[in-house]
Amino acid sequence: MTEIYLEISKLSxxxxxxxxxxxxxDNEVNESVQELMLYLLQMNPTILKTIYxxxxxLGVTRYGAVAxxxxxxxxxxxxxxxxxxxxxxxxxxxxxxxxxxxxxGETIPSKHLYNLPNEITSSYQWTSLEKIDSAxxxxxxxxxxxxxxxYYEGNTLDSLASKTGISxxxxxxxxxxxxxxxxxxxxx
Length: 188
Known about the structure:
Shape: elongated
Number of domains: 2
Strand order of the largest sheet: 1-2
Radius of gyration: 28 Å
Helix content: over 70%
C-alpha cells in the first residue's frame, strides 16, 4: 500500500492542473486537491488496491479526476460542505456590509452586535412571556414547575431527570402536554 500512496502523492500537480479546468480560483484549487488527497488516503484500501492492480496509476488518476470534478461541482460533496458553503456564506455577509461610525470613532460593520435595533428588546417579548406565565397559572403546580425548570432555566431532559429523580419519559410527556395546551390557550 505504501507504494500506491507514494504514487498518489506524485499526482498532486496533475490533479491541480485538472482542478484549474474546473475553477480559476487558486484557493479552491489548492483546497480541493488537498481534500482529494485526504479522500484517497482515507478510502477503503482494498478498493484502492483493486483500482491500482487493474489499471495502474492511470486508473487511480481517472478515479481521482472523477472525485475532483464531483467535489468542485456537486453541492453534496464533502468539499462543498467543508469549504465552499461556509466561505460563500461569509463572503455574502461581508460584501453586503456597510460601515457605521461609533461614538468612539471605531468603524464597525452594520451587521455587528452593537448595531442591533432597540426594538428587539421591546415590550413585545415581555408581554409574550407574561401571557405564558398567566396561562401557566391554570396548570397544576407539578406541570407548571416542570415546564419552568425546562424552559426558563434551560435544563435538558437528561439533566432535569438526574436532578429531580423523575424519569426522562415522564418529564417529556409532561412538557409536551403543557406545550400543546399552551399553544391552544395562547392561540385563542
